Amino acid sequence: MTSEYSLEWKYMPVTGYLIDQKSNKVIWDLKSEDSKWPKHLFTVSISQQKEFMSDPELGWNWHKSWNQPDINYTINELFEPSITFSGLKFGTTSQNNKHSKFNLIFLLFYSRKEEVLILDSQISSDVFFDSRNRSNHKNGEISQEMFIDLFPLLLIDQILYK
């Protein structure tokens, strides 16, 4: 469920599953379920204050200790609600995760009782999150093993402080 490096930073529709690595069970099918709701009601756009850095060897990359660029998630409809994620940092690095690249995944879903309906799902281009000791691994093999850290749903409605 990763995207390929290209010269353009982008978010693309997700076409995969979120799987618990320990039990190998599917947590969510992340594909949007277009057939269950009228797609023409809204569209989603994701933009960033600036792009991540680009390197011919690593592709898109960012330093762990830097705040990520502000990410604006907008639902384009009559009143265009928007959410801005700012001041986000990763708590780990690609080096600490077998040189794996990371992806940002945005899900818009509707939940009622036991039913979860994915309205839209987008995945970012691959990003290598650096640390100070990158030079020790300059030409190291970059793993494609998946690492998942979910944003706790209980925090969605809360104001977070640094």
Secondary-structure map:
Blueprint: E1 11-13, E2 17-19, E3 26-29, E4 43-48, E5 53-55, E6 59-63, E7 71-76, E8 82-85, E9 105-112, E10 115-124, E11 128-130
Parallel strand pairs: 6-11
Antiparallel strand pairs: 1-10, 2-3, 4-7, 5-6, 7-8, 9-10
Beta-strand proportion: 25-35%
Uncertain ranges: 1-5
Largest sheet: 3 strands, antiparallel
Mean pLDDT: 76
Helix content: under 10%
Strand-and-helix sequence, N→C?
EEEEEEEEEEE
Distance between the termini: 31 Å
Estimate the global geometry from the Cα principal axes: globular
In words, what does this structure look like?
By secondary structure, the protein is an all-beta fold. The protein has one domain (13-137). The chain has strands at residues 11-13, 17-19, 26-29, 43-48, 53-55, 59-63, 71-76, 82-85, 105-112, 115-124, 128-130. A 3-stranded antiparallel β-sheet has the order 1-10-9, with no helix packed on it. It has a 3-stranded antiparallel β-sheet with strand order 4-7-8, with no helix packed on it. Strand 9 and strand 10 (115-124) form a beta hairpin. The radius of gyration is 17 Å and the shape is globular. The protein starts with 10 loop residues before the first strand and ends in a 32-residue tail after the last strand.
Keywords for this structure?
mainly beta; 3-stranded antiparallel β-sheet; 11 strands; disordered N terminus
Explain briefly what this protein structure is.
The protein is 0% helix and 34% strand. It is an all-beta fold and 162 residues long.
